[in-house]
């Protein structure tokens, strides 16, 4: 009994918090089933609204996981509080990391977008959509829309080791989506003149899209040595510049590409 | 707050009921009600969700982006958002798809019901009927039942993974058909898994038969799709137990979507007047004679008198639908093994202008899309009406009727009962505020 209690005390505390999103990343975790429950047996879950009714007391925690976009004032408050009480703040998914599909509005009509949807717009919050790292320091990011469950299981123990004994934070290997795609024996979509961003995008997703014959649209973001210029050249025969730009808007990749082009003089 | 004198209850003050955050539902919302001298004066949800403006961001985009973006409205039920947008675009551009494509899509729909319902009825709702606050405790106390619920979910997820390429935000579906189809061997594996799952579903169903649901009843209008010869899930016309029967293209003539100032969830009323109910309880009430044989047998064993107006029973009707969808998906898969799946691969089609509606049954009720496309394939306008937006007013009306019956309990117990009531509806706030 006593040892059990001691073990319980020693367990790192974590919270999984959701801001504005589809909550699909939480489901990507939950859908791991037994494997997720096993991973969670190593920690004390302080807050996970999808599974528990108990009020979260706001205590200090070791790792705060955050999904979704800090779009409303309440979202921002939740995020700042989470940062304050967490040793590590870990971002899960494209909405938190890159803005996600809601960011599309930044690229177009911005605040005007709301007029297509609502008759009464007074009192409705429609600020510019900004990624989590605009508000707080982020220690690690699980990219993707949604995140890859297996990748979570791979890095979760490393994150736990970090908060327990100060081990290094994980880094995702700078390797394109193509590496896993080839390993699966897929025929390259680009060879069939089907647009695919695989070469410039950070792998680790098991190339799930190209395996389903869906071109990569970049939800995991540019990889550190990804070459946008070369990618655009390769895609020229299969899509117009406008189509390229439109596609980069879906997962908030567009601003990252603009930054890359600024830094690399186009 | 409440004075009890003998059996007579006198409330000496106005009562404000406030639940800050309802956990274990999809999305974020609170709830407020005010009771004055025992009468419920208002019962209202306070949605705490940011607005993603999905319809707004779709305007001006190419139609091919729509199923990809729209499915991201919801992480539990992406399949139905994906398929309904695809169907609406196909209707608008007059694209016909093969029976192979339709059947594969129907299997995905069944799979969506199985894993969404299994999640809700077991992991989100069940604890309420057993007076447990935390699912980790539920899992500890009911390990066998948990395993069964997980197994049932896994079958649903496996179907979507194999046919759609991924569970959360599937990949293979597109306008005109599929980018990739499963192999015969994969179909056979799924059939085996489905056959293994049916007895497990029946065992879990038997367990659910033993849970006690509170008494409450308020006659209402049940709305869902209906189609000849089968339990309508993937397609059908709009029907209700009050004699409505219209083509989906006339949905908005009968159901009016509107926004109240300062509210971010739009509401829908029948002919602009009354609230109505959608979802498992509506479908089983309206279409029960078309359920699969095992599902009909289970429904009979529940001894409910149809029409049944107790919203707590929604959870049990979801269980009925899980049994139906497991049994029926195996039937559909078997039919698919005798068909040429290459016919489900997308063929060339003509992009043209047009506008049209489409609907499917989502786990939580009828999901409606309308889209208007220009000659080059860019979206001019779009409207999405989700099940939760449709039943939200109904849920508030129901709770207003439910509160007087529980007002004598202590405050905590009362709040618990209300949360249980709300969760039985299985609201999806992310869907409602899209």
Strand content of chain B: 15-25%
Compute the CA-based radius of gyration of chain B. Answer: 22 Å
Number of domains of chain A: 2
Largest two-chain interface: A-B, 61 and 61 residues
The helix tally of chain A amounts to: 13
Helix and strand content put the structural class of chain B at: alpha+beta
* Number of strand elements of chain B: 15
Order of helices and strands of chain B: EEEEEHHHHHHEEHEEEHEEHHHEEEHHH
CATH fold-level name of the largest domain in chain B = Cytochrome-c3 Hydrogenase, chain B
Poorly predicted parts of chain A? none
| Order of neighbouring strands in the sheet with most strands of chain A | 2-1-3-4-5
Coarse shape of chain A: globular
- Report the total helices of chain B: 14
Question: What is the CATH level 1 assignment of the largest domain in chain B?
Answer: Mainly Alpha
Report the sheet with the most strands of chain B, covering strand number, pairing sense and barrel closure: 3 strands, antiparallel
Distance between the termini of chain B: 39 Å
- The percent range for helix content of chain B is 40-55%
C-alpha termini separation of chain A:
65 Å
Widest sheet: strand ordering of chain B: 3-4-5
Poorly predicted runs of chain B are: 1-10
Helices and strands in order:
The complex is a heterodimer of chains A (266) and B (434).
Chain A lengths: L1 H9 L2 E6 L5 H7 L3 H7 L3 E5 L12 E7 L5 H13 E7 L1 H5 L5 H4 L6 H4 L22 E3 L6 H17 L11 H7 L24 H4 L16 H8 L5 H10 L3 H10 L3
Parallel strand pairs in A: 1-2, 1-3, 3-4, 4-5
Chain B lengths: L1 E4 L2 E4 L3 E5 L9 E8 L2 E9 L6 H5 L6 H6 L7 H16 L5 H32 L4 H7 L1 H22 L8 E2 L2 E2 L5 H26 L13 E4 L10 E4 L4 E2 L4 H4 E4 L8 E4 L9 H8 L5 H9 L12 H24 L16 E9 L2 E9 L5 E7 L1 H20 L4 H14 L4 H4 L2
Antiparallel strand pairs in B: 1-2, 3-4, 4-5, 6-7, 8-9, 9-10, 11-12, 13-14, 14-15
Helix pairs in contact in B: 3-4, 4-6, 4-11, 4-13, 6-7, 7-11, 10-11, 12-13
């Amino acid at each position: 009994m006593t040892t059990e209690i001691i073990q319980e005390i020693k367990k790192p505390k974590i919270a999984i918090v959701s801001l504005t999103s589809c909550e699909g990343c939480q489901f990507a975790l939950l859908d791991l089933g037994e494997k997720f429950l096993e991973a969670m047996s190593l920690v004390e879950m302080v807050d996970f609204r999808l599974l528990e009714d108990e009020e979260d007391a706001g205590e200090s925690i070791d790792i705060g996981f955050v999904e979704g976009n800090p779009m409303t004032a309440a979202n921002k408050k939740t995020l700042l509080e989470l940062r304050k009480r967490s040793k590590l703040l870990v971002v899960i998914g494209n909405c938190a990391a890159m803005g996600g599909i809601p960011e599309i509005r930044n690229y177009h009509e911005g605040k005007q977008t709301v007029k297509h949807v609502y008759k009464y717009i007074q009192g409705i919050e429609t600020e510019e959509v900004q990624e989590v790292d605009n508000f707080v320091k982020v220690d690690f990011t699980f990219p993707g829309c949604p995140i890859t469950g297996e990748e979570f299981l791979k890095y979760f123990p490393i994150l736990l080791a970090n908060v327990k004994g100060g081990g290094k934070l994980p880094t995702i290997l700078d390797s394109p989506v193509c590496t896993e795609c080839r390993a699966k024996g897929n025929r390259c979509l680009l060879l069939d003149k089907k647009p695919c961003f695989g070469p410039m995008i950070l792998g680790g997703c098991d190339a799930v899209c190209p395996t389903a014959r869906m071109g990569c649209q970049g939800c995991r973001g540019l990889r550190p040595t990804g070459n946008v210029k070369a990618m655009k050249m390769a895609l020229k025969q299969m899509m117009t510049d406008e189509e390229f730009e439109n596609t980069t808007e879906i997962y908030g990749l567009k601003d990252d590409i603009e930054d890359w082009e600024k830094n690399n003089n186009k | 707050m409440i004075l009890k004198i003998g059996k007579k209850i006198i409330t000496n003050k106005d009562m404000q009921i406030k639940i800050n955050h309802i956990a274990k539902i999809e999305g974020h919302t609170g709830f407020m009600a005010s009771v004055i001298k025992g009468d419920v004066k208002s019962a209202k949800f306070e949605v705490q969700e940011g607005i993603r403006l999905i319809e707004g961001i779709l305007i001006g985009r190419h139609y091919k982006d729509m199923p990809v973006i729209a499915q991201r409205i919801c992480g539990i039920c992406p399949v139905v958002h994906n398929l309904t947008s695809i169907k609406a675009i196909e209707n608008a551009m007059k694209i016909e798809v093969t029976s192979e494509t339709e059947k594969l899509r129907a299997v995905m729909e069944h799979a969506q019901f199985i894993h969404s319902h299994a999640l809700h009825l077991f992991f989100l709702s069940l604890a309420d009927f057993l007076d447990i606050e935390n699912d980790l405790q539920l899992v500890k106390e009911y390990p066998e039942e948990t395993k069964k619920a997980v197994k049932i979910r896994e079958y649903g997820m496996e179907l979507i993974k194999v046919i759609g390429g991924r569970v959360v935000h599937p990949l293979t579906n597109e306008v005109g058909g599929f980018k990739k189809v499963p192999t015969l061997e994969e179909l056979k594996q799924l059939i085996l898994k489905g056959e293994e799952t049916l007895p497990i579903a029946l065992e879990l169903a038997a367990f659910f038969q033993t849970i006690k649901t509170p008494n409450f009843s308020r006659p209402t209008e049940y709305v869902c799709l209906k189609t000849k010869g089968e339990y309508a899930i993937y397609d059908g016309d709009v029907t209700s137990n009050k004699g409505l029967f219209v083509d989906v293209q006339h949905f908005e003539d009968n159901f009016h979507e509107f926004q109240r100032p300062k509210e971010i969830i739009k509401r829908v009323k029948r002919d602009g007047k009354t609230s109505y109910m959608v979802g498992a309880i509506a479908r089983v009430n309206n279409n029960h004679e078309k359920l699969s044989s095992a599902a009909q047998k289970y429904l009979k064993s529940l001894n409910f008198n149809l029409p049944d107006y107790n919203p707590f029973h929604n959870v049990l009707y979801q269980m009925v639908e899980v049994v139906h969808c497991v049994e029926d998906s195996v039937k559909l898969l078997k039919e698919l093994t005798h068909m040429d799946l290459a016919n489900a691969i997308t063929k060339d089609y003509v992009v043209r202008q047009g506008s049209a509606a489409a609907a499917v049954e989502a786990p939580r009720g009828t999901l409606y899309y309308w889209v208007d496309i220009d000659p080059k394939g860019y979206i001019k306008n779009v409207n999405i009406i989700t099940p939760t937006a449709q039943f939200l007013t109904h849920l508030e009306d129901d709770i207003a009727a439910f509160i007087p019956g529980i007002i004598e309990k202590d405050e905590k117990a009362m709040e618990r009962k209300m949360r249980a009531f709300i969760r039985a509806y299985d609201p999806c706030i992310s869907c409602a505020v899209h």
